Amino acid sequence: MKDVSIDTITQAFLDYCGPDTDPRTLFVLRKMVEHMHAFAKETELTHAEWMRGLKFLTDAGQISDDERNEFVLISDVTGMSSLVDMLGSRHEGTSSSVLGPFHSVGAPHLPVGGDLKKDNEGATVLVEGVVKGTDGQQIEGAVIELWQTAENGLYYSQDTGQGDFNLCCSMTTGTDGRYAMTTVKPAPYKVPDDGPVGELFRATGREPWRPSHLHFIVQAEGYRALVTEVFANGDPYLDQDAVFGVREDLIMDYIECTDLDALPDDLQIGRNATVPYYKVNFDFVLAPEAAQTPT
Question: What is the spatial distance between Cα 182 and Cα 202, in angstroms, rounded to a whole number?
Fold first, then answer.
């Protein structure tokens, strides 16, 4: 096309797309390019600014590896991950939240009432609740995955001092839909800020902290899979989460307790149980698989 100009270049790109392009792919691509071109024109983007943006992305690729994906982190800290989560969970049921970069497939199975704390330092926490549908019925056979930081604010994949799958498990609910485990209270932590995302934080005066949380994936036949996090009420970073993951219905209370005899009979509490310990009760509500997202 010989007459490409500021006014025609967007349509010129779209005209290059072939007639067999998947309609949804074409729609998403068209909107993305339209917004990018509009952004460049609205901001009068300079060549130097454009090159700085390309360097930012190049640096993200160079620092990424099997254990760390800086592009995912960029999506998280700009709110894109949370926005997509919220767009996908506009239905009844527990809110979704960001998956994060530290989920590991294949965590060992833990029976209901099992001890996940083991030899980890920190206060003992009993986490329990029920998985149910939006109709209030308990869901048997729901599979729960949990992963979290240790007391030092690190996941096992970040910390050579922790064993594989430390503070990670999967669990299957029984006929009552209940899940329960003892674990350790997770700590707030900083997202990695030694790469391009750190430059973004420093350039904008932001802090890289995340509030204390537990990660969950909850799945059951006939229901939408739920990827979410639950947060500690009173955490100092609830209102400044670096990745915008906090939702009002995902905040839970840690209730301090001292009577070990009051714990459920099926609880396999470990030898390192602390007094005081904490109780957390959080129910998950799954939306039916056929639930439609409003348009």
Answer: 38
pLDDT per residue as tens digits for the range 178-199: 999 999 999 999 999 999 999 9
Q: Cα–Cα distance between 111 and 109 in angstroms, integer?
A: 7
The domain defined by 80-286 carries CATH number 2.60.130.10: yes
Q: In the numeric block, which tokens belong to residue 277?
A: 């310990």
> CA–CA separation, 54 vs 10, rounded Å?
20
Are 197 and 70 a contacting pair, CB within 8 Å? yes
For residue 285, with 0-12 CB atoms within 10 Å meaning exposed, 13-18 middle and 19 or more buried, which class applies?
A: buried
pTM here? 0.87
In this structure, is the dihedral angle defined by the CA atoms of residues 236, 214, 229 and 196, taken in order, positive or negative?
A: positive
Count how many Cα atoms sit within 13 Å of the Cα of residue 169 in the half-sphere of its side chain. Answer: 20
pLDDT, residue 104, reads: 85
Give the residue, 271 or 277, on which the prediction is more confident. Answer: 277
Domain with CATH 2.60.130.10 in the chain: 80-286
What phi and psi values does residue 133 have, to the nearest 5 degrees? -90, 175
Say whether pLDDT at 294 is over 70.
no
Rounded to the nearest 5°, which phi and psi values hold at 216? -135, 145
Task: With a cut of 60, say whether residue 168 has pLDDT above it.
Answer: yes
